[in-house]
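Postdoc handover notes: sequence design on the structure in folder B. Input tokens:
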């Protein structure tokens, strides 16, 4: 086979083709998607429909090296690799570099060695957010049940909706058309690129030149009680996700049975909206202070470390900041190691800084007030 290829229409089945990056990158369209993991080439065209983390997170890496994302999202790699085995179609040609798009091989290798040294610390969780990260690819069915219980029954949301949305955000943060957290085109125009494009194309759903003013009316107060609730409900109905819908209903049945006897139907819903209103403000300011003022742009095919550092920043460590943000003030470490329990971020941060300094990557830390002001800017 040498430098040529042996292509096969059979997905896996012991195929042994040898491919160049150029050939792999041709398989990046809907219905024809390949990924590379540690130099092995996999045809995931059909598997994406069954992927527990959602089809889009794999689609975002179609035609690319997905080794770092695979390592970051799968704590039990031995278990997950049994699903990869039948998808194998070959490997990269010996003459091909391990990294695509001319990434810095030394940087990538150093980060992977660094990541593996912290892998042993990635087996704990924290209710809605951390259980979501940890339960998707865990071996036990009880992990999935616990995930649905926490997000569905305790929070009144959808576990699948959260997974599909949040894992995309971690896989390609602040990347247009890949990170759903910046997909706010009907309400807000984010970053430095979109406002310019919208001005040139004269696309005006709303007066975006005044979005800094109406942001306070429709952003923090309405994101969770209105936008997220509508989107969750629509997603479950459109995808006919009746299991998540049942968990979703169980939350409201429990809530109403507890509060209606005391406050009546109207009073109970008013209380719920008040709580969601407060929660929404916390969610917007705490999550967006790490992302909104960072680079928001189209796909640049950066390595994992560079991509996450461009899209995230940390907030100064203090007792209040740690408590108020639930340790998400260490957003850089959270993105680099999405399976790591948050109380270990503070231990990982100094070593991440050293690695960034070695390769000239900017590691940004802001004060809490400065970060909130940057959201408005």
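Designed sequence:
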């Amino acid at each position: 086979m040498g430098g040529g290829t042996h292509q096969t229409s059979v997905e896996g089945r012991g195929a042994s083709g040898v491919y160049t990056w150029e050939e792999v990158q041709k398989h990046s369209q809907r219905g024809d998607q390949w990924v590379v993991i540690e130099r092995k080439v996999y045809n995931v065209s059909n598997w994406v429909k069954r992927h527990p983390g959602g089809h889009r997170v794999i689609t975002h890496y179609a035609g690319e090296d997905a080794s770092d994302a695979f390592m970051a999202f799968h704590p039990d790699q031995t278990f997950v690799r049994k699903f990869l085995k039948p998808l194998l179609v070959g490997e990269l040609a010996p003459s091909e570099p391990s990294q695509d798009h001319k990434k810095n091989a030394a940087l990538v290798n150093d980060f992977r060695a660094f990541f593996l040294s912290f892998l042993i610390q990635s087996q704990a969780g924290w209710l809605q957010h951390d259980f979501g990260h940890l339960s998707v690819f865990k071996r036990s069915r009880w992990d999935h049940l616990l995930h649905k219980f926490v997000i569905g029954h305790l929070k009144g949301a959808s576990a699948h909706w959260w997974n599909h949305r949040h894992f995309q955000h971690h896989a390609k943060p602040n990347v247009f058309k890949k990170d759903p957290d910046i997909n706010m085109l009907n309400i807000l125009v984010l970053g430095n690129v979109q406002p310019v494009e919208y001005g040139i194309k004269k696309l005006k759903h709303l007066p975006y030149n005044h979005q800094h003013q109406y942001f306070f009316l429709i952003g923090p107060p309405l994101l969770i009680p209105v936008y997220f609730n509508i989107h969750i409900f629509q997603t479950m109905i459109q995808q006919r996700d009746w299991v998540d819908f049942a968990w979703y209903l169980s939350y409201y049945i429990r809530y109403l049975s507890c509060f209606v006897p005391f406050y009546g139907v109207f009073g109970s819903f008013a209380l719920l909206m008040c709580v969601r209103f407060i929660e929404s403000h916390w969610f917007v300011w705490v999550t967006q202070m790490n992302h909104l003022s960072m680079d928001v742009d189209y796909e640049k095919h950066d390595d994992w470390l560079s991509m996450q550092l461009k899209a995230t920043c940390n907030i100064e460590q203090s007792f209040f900041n740690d408590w108020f943000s639930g340790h998400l003030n260490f957003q850089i470490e959270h993105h680099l190691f999405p399976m790591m329990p948050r109380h270990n971020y503070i231990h990982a941060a100094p070593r991440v800084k050293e690695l960034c300094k070695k390769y000239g990557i900017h590691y940004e830390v802001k004060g809490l007030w400065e970060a909130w002001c940057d959201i408005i800017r």
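Context for whoever picks this up: Residues 1-14, 121-128, 135-139 have pLDDT under 50 and may be disordered. Don't rerun without checking with the PI first.
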